[in-house]
């Protein structure tokens, strides 16, 4: 189907869209890659762990899908540029950038885990901005494109000891809204705000006490990452002129 700009990207749906996803080696990013691949998207997947990324790419290609893995650290500008360049080189365009990479290394302030604070700031804020800088000129040149940014319900309800995490996810929300306002008629900008999701990232890093409490809670109430993947798919499959601003998706058990 041909869209108004004469390209194939502006049609509704997911099939054939070229979609880059950061943090695709596990959890929500992995589930989103599998979901979108099954719907016929052509994927460029980024993360730091090459072995895990290769595993996701292999599963997709074995099932008849199309995916390329690129080792990416989102805190590095050049890596995001390499991710978007790969999409252009291999597929001739980029329709969607899903900025999902993240770390939930939470802890009380008294623990002074400054490296974890820095990692959350650089991954969620600098990493998101690096993605915007890499994809925005591509989208402007194409006169189409969609940013899908993964925030968190932590941006709405601050719970101790998650303040730094919540602050960085609040920044994701604010950046996304500002970007939407500047995006103009051709681009789409979506915030996906998941609640507790059953991934390996919950309880990873951070203080051992906080990690244990989060992991316990995850095992009691968390929803599967596929629930977030289908929300992302919903935002992507809308027609070109329809911009899904935000989807909040959380387990019914979450307060
Ligand atoms: N699980 C939840 O309850 C929940 C709720 C709300 C929002 N979220 C958000 O959802 C996103 C995905 O988290 P998840 O739950 O799926 O956890 P996860 O399984 O740990 O996934 C995190 C992903 O981000 C990647 N990543 C981390 N730092 C990176 C960096 N500097 N550069 C590139 N990739 C990086 C990881 O891959 P590598 O280690 O291989 O780089 C991994 O693929 C995060 O932004 C998180 O904040 C999660």
Automatic annotation (TrEMBL):
Domain Ketoreductase: 17-197
UniProt keyword Oxidoreductase present: yes
InterPro entries attached to this UniProt entry: KR_dom, NAD(P)-bd_dom_sf, Sc_DH/Rdtase_CS, SDR_fam
EC class of the enzyme, as a word: oxidoreductase
Keywords in alphabetical order: NADP, Oxidoreductase
Coiled-coil intervals: none
EC number: 1.-.-.-
GO-annotated molecular function: oxidoreductase activity
Entry-linked SUPFAM superfamilies: NAD(P)-binding Rossmann-fold domains (SSF51735)
Record family assignment: Belongs to the short-chain dehydrogenases/reductases (SDR) family.
Designated name of the protein: SDR family oxidoreductase
């Amino acid at each position: 189907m041909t869209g108004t700009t004469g390209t194939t990207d502006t049609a509704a749906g997911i099939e054939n869209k070229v979609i880059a996803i950061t943090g695709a080696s596990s959890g929500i990013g992995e589930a989103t890659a599998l979901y979108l691949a099954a719907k016929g998207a052509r994927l460029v997947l980024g993360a730091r762990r090459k072995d895990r990324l290769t595993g996701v790419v292999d599963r997709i290609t074995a099932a008849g899908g199309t995916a390329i893995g690129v080792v990416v650290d989102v805190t590095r500008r050049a890596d995001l540029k390499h991710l978007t360049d790969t999409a252009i080189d291999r597929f001739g365009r980029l329709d969607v950038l899903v900025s999902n990479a993240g770390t939930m290394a939470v802890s009380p302030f008294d623990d002074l885990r400054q490296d974890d604070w820095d990692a959350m700031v650089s991954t969620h804020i600098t990493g998101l901005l690096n993605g915007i800088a890499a994809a925005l000129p591509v989208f402007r040149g194409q006169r189409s494109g969609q940013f899908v940014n993964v925030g968190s319900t932590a941006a709405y309800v601050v719970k101790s000891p998650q303040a730094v995490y919540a602050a960085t996810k609040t920044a994701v929300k604010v950046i996304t809204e500002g970007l939407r306002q500047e995006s103009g008629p051709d681009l789409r900008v979506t915030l996906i705000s998941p609640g507790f999701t059953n991934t390996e990232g919950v309880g990873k890093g951070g203080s051992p006490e906080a990690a244990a409490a989060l992991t316990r809670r995850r095992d009691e109430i968390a929803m599967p990452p596929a629930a977030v993947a289908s929300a992302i798919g919903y935002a992507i499959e809308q027609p070109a002129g329809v911009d899904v601003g935000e989807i909040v998706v959380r387990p019914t058990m979450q307060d």
